Amino acid sequence: MFKNIINFIKEVFKNEDFIPLHEPTFVGNEKKYLNECIDSTFVSSIGRFVEDFEKKIADYTGAKFCVATCNGTSALHLSLLLADVQQNDEVITQPLSFVDLSIVALIF
C-alpha cells in the first residue's frame, strides 16, 4: 500500500537511501547568530533572537501577538487551550506536528 508513496518520494528526492525528515539550510548569518546566542547564554526559549522572531512573525501575519514554542506539538496544545477546546470535542489535525508547526500567531 505504501510502496507507491515511498517510490514517489524517492523519485522526487532523487535518493534511494536515507531521506531526512528535516534538513536545515544555512545560507547567511546563521553561524554568527548562533555564536551570539551562545555567548549571551540565552540558548533556550528566551532572549533577543526569540523576541525578534516573534515580532517579525506578528508583523508579517498582521497579528497583534506571536508566541514561539519549542515544537509544533506545544504550539497545537497552546492553540487548543486558547480556542477553549474541551474534553470530548473533536479536533482534526495532522499527525506530524513536532517539526512543521512551531509558531502560534494570536490575532485579537
Model description:
The structure is a single chain. With 108 residues, the chain is mostly helical. It has four helices and two strands. It is flat, with a radius of gyration of 18 Å. The model has no long low-confidence stretch (mean pLDDT 80). It has a two-stranded antiparallel sheet. It has a single domain, classed as 3-Layer(aba) Sandwich (Aspartate Aminotransferase, domain 2), CATH 3.40.640.10.
List the helices and strands and how they pair.
Elements lengths: L2 H11 L16 H11 L7 H14 L3 E4 L3 H11 L20 E4 L2
Please state the second-level CATH architecture. 3-Layer(aba) Sandwich
Low-pLDDT segments: none
Please provide the ordered H/E string of secondary-structure elements: HHHEHE
CATH class category label = Alpha Beta
Distance between the termini: 44 Å
The Cα radius of gyration reads 18 Å
Give the total of domains.
1
Beta-strand portion reads 5-15%
Q: Please, how many helices?
A: 4
Shape: flat
Main structural class: mainly alpha
State the major sheet.
2 strands, antiparallel
Query: What is the arithmetic mean of pLDDT?
Result: 80
